Amino acid sequence: MTKVVIVSDRIETALIGPTGPEHRKLANKVMEEALKQARLRFEDLSYIVATGYGRINVPFADRQITEITCHAKGLYSLLPTVKTIIDIGGQDSKGIRIKDGKVINFVMNDKCAAGTGRFLEVIADSLGVPLNDLGKLSLEASRATPISSTCTVFAEHEVTNQLANGESVANLVAGVHESIATRVYSLVRKLQIEKDIAVTGGGAKNIGLVKALEGKFGSPVLIPPEPLITGALGAALLGKEKWEKARLDGYTPTRSKEGLQEAKLFT
Amino acid sequence: MAEEKKRRAVATKTAAGIPKFVRGNLSATLKAKEEGKKVAKAFIHDGHDEIMRAMDIVPAWGESFSGVCAAKRDAEKFLQKAESDNFSRSLCTYATCHIGFEMAREEQGGAMPEGAPWGGMGRPDMILGNGQLLCDPRFKWPQALQHYLRDVPVFVTNMYYPPWDPNVDHHEQEKFYVKYCTEELHETVKFCEKVTGKKMDWDRLAAVVDLSDKTWDLFVDTYDLRKAIPTPMDTGDAMNTMVPITFNIGTQEAYDFYVELNNELKEKIAQGIGVADPEKYRLIWAAGLPSWFALNDFQYFNGKGAVFPVEVTYRDHEKIERLDLPKTNDPLERIAWRWVRYWTHWYDAARKIPGSTPKVARIIEYFEDYKCDGVVFHSAFSCRSWHAGIIHQAEVLRKVYKDIPILIMEGDIVDISSYNEADTHNRIDAFIETLEAYRNKQKN
Questions:
Q1: Are residues A185 and A158 in the same domain?
Q2: pLDDT per residue as tens digits for the range B299-334
Q3: Which helix (H) or strand (E) holds B255?
Q4: Shared-domain flag, residues A194 and A235
Q5: Residue B4: per-residue pLDDT
Q6: Choice between B182 and A116, residue whose per-residue pLDDT is larger
Q7: Residue spans of chain B under pLDDT 70
Q8: How many CB atoms lie within 10 A of CB B84?
Q9: Which chain A residue has the Cα nearest residue B441?
Q10: Residue B139 confidence (pLDDT)
Q11: Which site among A98, A106, A107, A191 would you substitute to test the B interface, given the most B Cβ atoms closer than 10 Å to its Cβ?
Q12: Taking CA atoms, which of B206, B222, B318, B419 is between 20 and 30 Å from B259?
């Protein structure tokens, strides 16, 4: 998903648009929509920060900052007591330790879809359950069916076999949540976890997964009001901070000379 | 994109001579037959270097061969060959790449496998191994090779040194280990004499050991020049300049290489030429063999103003004076003392920090001496032996330095399928931001 957050002294607008092979180059379209929603012109924006995996595909951005730093900033503005962030996104999962809104350590899960939102998408697809319904459905489970395979493809086979053996869909979904929570816990525990703990990303919208994470971490977790936009919010806040500091120091920050246009990388 | 600015990264000119060394070592194994010399499949840092050099035995370095395959991104065919005989991908890929190469050659009746990098490596006449404390491939690799090279004799020694125990004074034990190592080396000489049909020239061996000692000293003096700010040489370069001391120790060529490097670094320092301009962050490469197929990652760091003036990897040498070696007339006992004292000389420092280890004591020493701002580890998936304990080391460093930025990268030495460039660069970007935040916090 492509997210745009525009801030002044408050959040002017927050918008989530699609991403994909075709849309990846169209960050400008999501930005246009966000500007329309906020009743602003592109020229009204003082500074633009791009973040996330696609940050290099935003020609009109003035600066790129990684999602690690942006998540920390965004979440700190919403939940300042948080010291450990668990981000479960579509492409990866991360653990971030923060102090006063600054990153002091981080870990990322890569090379493998286990423990990420993609794992949930694959399983939801094979069970024929809409992704958004997985959380609620798992709360109806009588037990969490153990899923021993960590590999997404093998786990999908395992779930299909269990289904054929008569296991309930709810139990299987609970088992999948348990599997992801175990994976994420073993990743994030490397950070010397400190409370409060917050969960962000698409995974935070899944109540079943959140419950499983609370079980693993042995503590309730906090969820920001809109867990999908914390990174974009952090990017906007860092942009604002950069622009304000430049003004205070008496100079104009360097801006991208590219207008609101699509990325040329893919054309 | 407005703030993206490429920064200058400068490599040493001396390092440009390294491919000649590596090619020279490989071609020496091919020429050996014509010259009537024997080739030994050997391991680096095994204590056998001087014995081989003094007996005109040509070393065939398996690690170097596999590293070259990886750097050329041409290891896959050999890894797959080994995998076809049930060698798992989670085994040491230096070993499996080389074993795959030897398997292919034997299947072709001794003909060099097509596309072997830089002409390939000569078939060994003997295999020398060494069961160090940690690295299990040092004895399993020779054993596995013997399945395919049935006629090649194998000799595996055990060059042990006192294991780390914070409650035991290793100084009381070391002489027993030295005696054991010395005997192992004498047995190695007997084995080599049997295979080559030649007697050891003990005066020549003593001269080779003396030359090694001189090279150790010069190497450390040269690398210490990197303490300069800005540093004139990066770890990216050191992954090349390690070749002479690692693969050619005991030769005049290795010594001469460091004379040249030493001169170049002094010149650079005098002219204020650094690896990165400006040099923003100084990092220590605190553990891990590099991903040979992704050495450009060092330039990625450099491009962001981050330099590595020091690394633990391939710096397995120390000033001889610091090791305080007892006098002996036996060059093999000299090697044994140097071996045992080298591996144990951080033990005393480690005992002073509760919960620490010699590896951490060494990192702390370098971190302070080279005025570093952050720590980078590389966890190579297939090398358990030298990469075990990285997380523990990071935890101890955090106890000592609190919120010090630490990055643990993940990849492999040879197997590119364990590596993800986009994610690696993403982690480096985030780490650089963490360094900046840490620096700002220190200022305030």
A1: yes
A2: 999 999 999 999 999 999 999 999 999 999 999 999
A3: helix B252-271
A4: no
A5: 45
A6: B182
A7: 1-9, 133
A8: 10
A9: A102
A10: 87
A11: A106
A12: B206
User: What backbone phi and psi angles, to 5 degrees, belong to B267?
Assistant: -65, -45
Token digits of residue B326:
């007892």
* Domain assignment of residue A242, yes or no: yes
If asked whether residues A124 and A243 sit together in one domain, one would say: no
What chain A residue is nearest to B411 in terms of C-alpha separation?
A111
In chain A, residues with a C-beta closer than 8 Å to the C-beta of B2 are 62-63, 254-257
Residue B430 to residue A103, Cβ atoms within 8 A: yes
Is residue A102 included in any domain, yes or no? yes
Instruction: Grade residue A235 by pLDDT with cuts at 50, 70 and 90.
Output: very high
Same-domain status, A64 and A93: no
Phi-psi region of B364 (alpha: psi -120 to 50; beta: other; left: phi over 0): alpha
Contact between residue B370 and residue B226 where contact means Cβ atoms under 8 Å apart: yes
Pairing of strands A63-64, B126-130: unpaired
Q: Looking at the whole model, is its pTM more than 0.90?
A: no
Give the CATH number for residue A183: 3.30.420.40
Q: Is B271 exposed, middle or buried (0-12, 13-18, 19+ CB in 10 A)?
A: exposed
Domain count of the fold of chain A? 2
List, in order, residues 6 or more apart from A247 with CB less than 8 Å away: none
pLDDT, residue B130, reads 87
What's residue B8's pLDDT?
A: 45
Would you call A56 and B406 a contact, using CB atoms and an 8 Å cutoff? no
pLDDT score of A262: 73
Picking from B1, B408, B430, the nearest residue to A256 by CB comes out as B1
